Amino acid sequence: MIALKESDLRKDVAKLLIVRASGHALDSQRQYPKWELKNCDLKRLLKEGIGGVILFGGTTIELEQRTKTLRAWAEKPLFLCADVEEGLGQRFQGGTWLAPPLAVAQIHRKDPEKAIALAEKYGNCIGSQARLCGLNWVLAPVCDVNINPKNPVINLRAWGEDPLTVSELTCAFNKGLSAQGVLTCAKHFPGHGDTSVDSHLELPTINHDLQRLEEVEFVPFKAIIASGVDTVMSAHVLFPNIDPNQPASLSSKTITKLLRDEIGFDGLLVTDALVMEAIHNFYNDADAAVMAFAAGADLLMMPADPDEAIDAICKALLMGRIPMQRLQETLHRRKKALAKVEGLNPSLFSQEEKMDSLLIECRQDRVLAEDLIRNSMEIHHHVPPGDLSSDNNLVRVDGVLPCPFLNNLSPAVCLPEEAGYRTTLCHEMGIPLWRDDLYEPLVLDRFQGGAFFLQLFVRGNPFRGSLFEKEPWLATIRQLQGLKRLAGLVVYGSPYLWNELNEVLDSTIPSAYSPGQMHEAQIQVLSSLFHFYEAPDFKAHTIHQFTD
Amino acid sequence: MIALKESDLRKDVAKLLIVRASGHALDSQRQYPKWELKNCDLKRLLKEGIGGVILFGGTTIELEQRTKTLRAWAEKPLFLCADVEEGLGQRFQGGTWLAPPLAVAQIHRKDPEKAIALAEKYGNCIGSQARLCGLNWVLAPVCDVNINPKNPVINLRAWGEDPLTVSELTCAFNKGLSAQGVLTCAKHFPGHGDTSVDSHLELPTINHDLQRLEEVEFVPFKAIIASGVDTVMSAHVLFPNIDPNQPASLSSKTITKLLRDEIGFDGLLVTDALVMEAIHNFYNDADAAVMAFAAGADLLMMPADPDEAIDAICKALLMGRIPMQRLQETLHRRKKALAKVEGLNPSLFSQEEKMDSLLIECRQDRVLAEDLIRNSMEIHHHVPPGDLSSDNNLVRVDGVLPCPFLNNLSPAVCLPEEAGYRTTLCHEMGIPLWRDDLYEPLVLDRFQGGAFFLQLFVRGNPFRGSLFEKEPWLATIRQLQGLKRLAGLVVYGSPYLWNELNEVLDSTIPSAYSPGQMHEAQIQVLSSLFHFYEAPDFKAHTIHQFTD
Hints:
In chain A, 41% of the residues lie in helices and 12% in strands. Chain A has 548 residues and is α/β, with parallel strands linked by helices.
């Protein structure tokens, strides 16, 4: 009798877990085999009742197949989610990749109504593509107020730098996303915007008092909860003035007292990934899962060992350390959320649609992607035509194995080469560019003679910390200007780096900024900067490759 | 009446053309938009009767969907082919990527029977995966005898360096491939093995007299034709002693007189890609198509402008410059070949198979991939364990945007890093490694102190010419040995470079060679070289990521 009960309990507890899988079909295709379950484990866990899967990597065509397979393995409703804050194309090739949310915030400064309309379309674009690929839950929007320009992990993912902008834009986004029938997620409660360390690597602390948190961090969360967000994700951040002992994601004071009782949120609360070092460094895996659940979390994202997490929670429930009522509450919320997405048709495309290659991206998605870039880029001066045959096109990226926005035929490589530049690609694994000299850091003899056209792809990226902050770009700009060897500058990504460099930039230097890094951003920035469309001496075919 | 006839003629002529498309579904996903047709053009041409499509890029899951779509667009039987000489995984992620054919030739030297058995399995593996993905024609085997070690385009793609080995192995390969029901292709007639320029870039000339050609180049083609190959591909190579005026692919003396009349081949003759510079540089596109057809070619691969090619051939037929009988012959051969593959079931996987992730690669395919690497690699000495914290892992590749065999988690990067090395990735777009010094070419101050573990990924690659021949690796080896700073050497790819470097290599230096470059080659070489399995001080998880 007890045994039977225990096996039923195990099945119910399994429903709390969201595990990670590759969007690719084959084990050999996994990009991160350390974190992505093998198919045999995935299949077993789904049979045992695991509550959901978060997917990373692959193409939209593969994702569609993959979600079908996962549904069939599970044999009952489950959550299928992805971290597609910037469009399906951010994670799944073939989907639309939009300029990051902070681009919309920049538009909001000049034209709030336009920005709000764009944010709603942004959500709608993601929702429609997610649904077509068989997902039923989108882990967006980020509701953190990006107070700290040095924030290595939120940064361009935020919808603004002040609580009002973030509230307006995330509510609009949420409206557009919800309209497609998928579940939405406000993250990272109670706010991850004022941190300077990456919670993937360490546990950040935010020391603000409650009054400040009420005035800034909580504002967008309250707004979006009031306007109807389905789920909230908790942050792995320590707020000593809310709970001096536990990070938000493991803190009953934060999740239950603040979020549930005071703010009144009654949807699902999911933790941020439990494998992140902010938690993993300090807590035994099973303990972290039990603590999060005990604190009030409904869903546990990516526990390091799913079987261990289930066992530990079952034990805590059976021993009465966590009341059974906690489980009932959670299962009730889960059922309600799944009921809401029951109507989504997972067998998406008709064969007809497939044949017409309408597939994932529709015409208005492409228009939106282009509009966002056009409205958020800045162009200062144009590159004069001339003989540039010995000039350097220096392209800086974080990494190249692989680089999601750059290939041999990318505009950032091809277009300057058409204009006579020679590309040098600089990245973490390359030969260093610099020597230890505060004023003349760039080692010039590592390049050919002539001027430098700099293209800096820089943004805070999870896991990479603030890699670029160690790079002396400011001094390099000064050095090249002093030598009259700066031909131009483009920053793709961080508005903070752009502002910093722009302050020392000679006003005659051709320069540009775009918050987006993808091909669409490169093509728009460079066409405009080089006047490609007007200059008949640039080969038209190069540009047509990208524009048609 | 004439109009009706002309439109029928156009449809028949269209059947001669093979056009190129991406394996991805969306126009925006094309890797080479210059060469890969947009879906609207592809759809129109297929409706107009285009005879076949050659596919490049994407994953096997996408390819399966793509071939279904193309069949539906065409509404009648057509050729669906790919250049998967080294396995589906060479072009389509998710398929098996096998060590290059020359690896089997190396095994043949020691154990001919084993090599012949491997070659048959090799063909079978490709045939079964091609069929599952919906292809009906595999453009392999390469029957060229790789006489010239400096051959930039054949090289490791060849099944040997002497006519007998090539004959035995390609016949065995052809048998294994045919057994899966797909069409096979012997290329590049009458032989591309003794060239030193890349026909993708220039027109090569082979000046040998007929006696020598009979003794070497023709041998494997005669053998494979006798044993039953379905199609032959002609080379863009000038053989003055066969035809002093036209390259083989446009030469009636070569295709009709030599191949048809003398050798007696009665299957389909397809040209190599007509967009290649060897042809494109010298002939107007329409002329090249007409000349190839007039010379006796049945199928025209990748004409630069399909509509122009059709028009020009129609005109030549209507004006009597090419007899109508030429077209009848070709259509007859085409019908026969398509009838042979009619039985291949394009609706491949059952949903059940998909769910079990059996998909494309079966167990014996994986075993074959592992066997080929194991049997063809060489290991000289092992790397002694020690404190290597300041040593350099210098990885040389042709290009990184993208690099098909390397990512952040590849064994060639991760395993040496586990052992304390720091990776520097060197490629065409990076900061140069060398200065102009014959004896000490490597600029040491561009690296950190300590020794160098060199991993050279080098093989002739189409379009890249002999890039690596300009790189002074021999002098670098001598320089580093002189300084006692050479920690080890691995060559992945070219046996010729390996032999050359090996001659100056101090016999105590740990070194290894593998003809393959993919993960499987990296893991086997490095596990063995570093004794990873035996040494408990290396973290087991790293290696398990790749082996399980």
